[in-house]
Amino acid sequence: MPESPLNSEARQRVLDAADRLFARRGYTAVTIKDIAAAVGIRHASLYHHVPGGKEQLYIEVTERNLRQHHAGISEAIRKHQGDLRAQLNAVADWLLTQPPMDMVRMVYSDMPDINAAAAERLSFMAVNSLIEPVAEALEQARQNGVIAHKDVGLVAGGLVGMIESLHAVPQDSLVQTRQAMAASLIDVMLRGLAKES
């Protein structure tokens, strides 16, 4: 039985190429011709695999990435149940081994150029996938008396944002690994900046 065009290996190559291009350049800067060229097909043929064109591709690869992030972050937290520092370091390791999610570019450049309902759905999904699992771990730690801060959503968003920003440090500027930098930031977050008496 032949593969459906919606589940074919060729379609997966289209999704993977679109994913790489959107991650590097953003929605607006990528064209259907760019994606087709990256896969090695004519751009008209791309619509056979993705009838909704560029917008459908962007939405689909962003949803796929967010589902992967949710699963990876949730698993990292689950593996270190009861040890907040280990949980946050595992989340950092997950985020730093994945392609960056440039949320600032997505919010200010990509989302305004796609269907408003889809943009809203992706924004909600981003919070649910990237922030909520970390906020839940922080809330559990708060309930257990490990941390005192009550706005765990703010802390979770700040932590994820700080870790994601480490992707932007140029390789030749690194004096330590990104994971070591993340561990230092997590340490500061857990201990605070105030001088110990």
What integer value in Å does the Rg equal?
Answer: 19 Å
Quick one: CATH superfamily of the domain at 55-191?
A: Tetracycline Repressor, domain 2
CATH topology (fold) name of the domain at 55-191: Tetracycline Repressor, domain 2
Global morphology:
elongated
Low-confidence segments, ≥5 residues, pLDDT <50?
A: 1-6
Query: Structural class of the helix and strand makeup?
Result: mainly alpha
Q: Write down the overall mean pLDDT.
A: 90
What proportion of the residues is helical, as a percent range? Answer: 55-70%
Order of helices and strands: HHHHHHHHH
Descriptive overview:
The protein has a domain at about 55-190: Tetracycline Repressor, domain 2, CATH 1.10.357. It is an all-alpha fold and about 200 residues long. The chain is built from nine helices and no strands.
Q: What is the gist of this entry?
A:
The chain has 197 residues and is mainly α.
Task: Considering the chains and any ligands shown, give keywords for the structure.
197 residues, mainly alpha, Tetracycline Repressor, domain 2, 9 helices, elongated
Strands, helices and their partners?
Blueprint: H1 9-25, H2 32-39, H3 43-49, H4 53-79, H5 84-96, H6 103-110, H7 116-143, H8 152-165, H9 178-191
